[in-house]
Input
Amino acid sequence: MSEQPLIGMHGVNKWFGELHVLKNINLDIDHREVVVVIGPSGSGKSTLCRAINRLEPIQEGEITIDGERLPEEGKDLARLRADVGMVFQQFNLFAHKTIRENVTLGPVKVRKLDKKEADSRAQELLERVGVANQAEKYPAELSGGQQQRVAIARALAMRPKAMLFDEPTSALDPEMIAEVLDVMLELAEEGTTMVVVTHEMGFARSAARRVVFMDEGQIMEVAPPDRFFDHPETERAQDFLSKILAH
Amino acid sequence: MDPISFLIENWDLYVNGFIRTFQAANLAFVFAMVVGVIIASFRVGPIPPLQRFAAFYVTVFRNTPLLIIFFLFFFGLPKLGFTFSPFTSTVIVMSLYTGAYLSETVRSGINSVDPGQAEAARAVGLKFREVLGTVVVPQALRTVVGPIGNLYIANGKNTVIGTTIGLFVETTAAQRLANSTGQPIAAYTAAALFFVVWLLIAAQVFTSIERRVAIKR
Output
């Protein structure tokens, strides 16, 4: 473990108009750490995740990636974003490109890899997420679970330092959730640095080193999963857990 | 004389005129596409002066009668020391004019692309220009092939206004023939036939392009 955190958030505040959506967020994420962010909807957990690669600009505070402060919009930001993989709730695969092209676009355009090398890397990654036989198809021809696995491959193709998952299974049918979580678990076991916003408590328990519980734009509690799920400290967390675990 | 016999009798004159129209219109349309995509990109881009310039450009060209733009360009610019041939003038004026309309069409296409597409492209590390050029505009254009086809047809017909500044097109040929033969109905109907055939084919081409590039959903 290197001494400085891979992702650092210090005194981060964000408003949507009058609404204070991130309140004084302080969170350091180490190399090879898996952090799962949970909380009720509207708690700011997605915004926190999206702030890390500045898809959501913040008004106050500082976010660093590998010691480097997130710059303003521009080519330095683009370079930094390339080092942070992102997986979206709605997959957001490029609709006009084949599965293979989705995975090679970034490496070719941003990393300047030659086409052949990018293709072979794509093939390798698509095999790893189990959709290699779909490489020539278009996103809409795949199931949601397959699309999300391609989205993970697309992010991994950039060889990112960290992966952000913004509710990656929330738009999936139940039978497809497992296939995506399996891929994520594998990544976690390999030591990928991950920030995962999710409602999948099973995943949080088995993959997370720390669980971050958010409510109303604040981080209420940070704890290892066993302690968090078995003995939540704050009343809000106890309340939240009793609601989601009641059924 | 009926228009068809009239046309056959004066075939060379018409065909030469038509080729001119066809060249001017197509050349202008290609440039207009470039203008349209650039102006639309300015409009959706993050740089306020470019946004304002693009809005101003569209306002000026959409709200000025085409005939006046032609006259200003052809009779006004020489006063400032710029002189172009009727053909070049027609191509430039039509590029700018049709480009203004195309930019609005392209912009509506851009607005129809799911914002998640641009977000994903930014997250991969593409710069603003690459996000537009490789992800957003290619998808935007696919959704507006139909409206672009309409503008192609309008552009083809509007190019004829170039005759007013001395561009020799088939309408000019028809005009001359109408005067010399005293048969305006046959002369102009024959000219119209070229447009009908040309633009019907063009419409078919755009329909098939639309089908081919449609994004599977």
Summary: Residues 11-44 of chain B form the longest helix (34 residues).
